[in-house]
Amino acid sequence: MSIKSVQISLDKNILETCWSDDHISRFHAKWIRFHCKCVRCKPTVTFDYKIDIPSFSPDLAYDEVKITDEGHKLYVIFEKELFHNHVTEHDADWLRQKCYCDACLEEKINARDVISKHLRSGREKVPPEVYFEEILEDSDRGTYMWLQHVIEEGLCIIKHVPTEEKMIEEITSKVATLEMTSYGPVWNVIDTGGDNAAYSTIGLPLHQDQPQYETAPGFQLLHTLRFDSAVTGGNSTMVDLFEAVEILRKESPEDFQTLVEVPATWCQIDLNPFSIEPVYLEHQKPHITLDYFGKVVGCVWQPGTHSALQVRERDVERYYKAHNKMMEIIRRKELQYKFKLSAGDLLIFNNRRMLHARDAYKSNGGVRHLRGTYLRLDHVKSKYLVLARKLGYDVIPPKVGNNSSM
């Protein structure tokens, strides 16, 4: 893309740029100056801070602008420039990519929102599957394949994984380091008769894991080591919480806004000295987080660890009204993935996006044993994008539900 013409505004604060396709970009003087790409200003190593913004005059303004290299380079001189004899440099392709007009911002937001693209697809609620053999045959492509499913659709099952305890660590080592929580780096979901519902045979409602942390775990992996034929029940259910939230926004905007504004509290308090690690975790945050553009970028839902609601009196009734409406949507059958894991299945899902549940079960002399762990969402997304570039795929950094639109 090349620059056809430029024009400085009368107040010398805006540079109106006309591109070869007649698109118009408007760049503020400070924006152009503080993103200068010359060797004097562009960092050469990580955390190199070459431009101290407060040192510049608040009245920084355009003085001269020059287009060179057949419209592919832009050179700018500023009034009240801090650096002696400095000329700001910009590559036209970079400038066009970073255009922040409303149309370009909307296009970038929509391109990153793979979650909404998937929800609009109307796909049947069947978990996508890949086979462990595919990962063995081509580690990079196989890993990228299941990462793509989880990034775009929220979940994936790797089939035929050997039923050895070490396998969950071997597979995750291809992606990121394990995320430590109060349950340790790796844990076993099996009936132990303990005081945690997960380690029993009772049913678990639709939920996310551990919102009592400031940052809840990102990706969750559950490797089925045993699911004996004698066991009855224990089926899995999953719901895309982002889909449920968008339904709430459409059907009941007032309740949607309540869950954006009124926070709930989640806690985990275990001071038993014989626990793996005694903890006192408590966190208050809203169920729904919006970004600057009004898009949903974060959701939280875990009724099992709710603490006492601590909000102003005027918000109590409207909170419970919104909570009930949200629960009604989450329980709709048409939103639910329903499936039964088998020995050798490794379920991977985005814990910040997908709700998961388990039916009650009876062992009948058999064993249901899953081995689980968590991975940081940022690390997994990074690995996905690094692999995409290594394999030559043109992938736009996606929204993944980590409270960011990028």
From TrEMBL:
Residues 130-374 form the TauD/TfdA-like domain. It holds the Pfam family GBBH-like_N. Its cofactor is Fe(2+). Residues 9-42 form the Gamma-butyrobetaine hydroxylase-like N-terminal domain. SUPFAM superfamilies: Clavaminate synthase-like. Keywords: Carnitine biosynthesis, Dioxygenase, Iron, Metal-binding, Oxidoreductase. Pathway: Amine and polyamine biosynthesis; carnitine biosynthesis. Belongs to the gamma-BBH/TMLD family. This is Gamma-butyrobetaine dioxygenase.
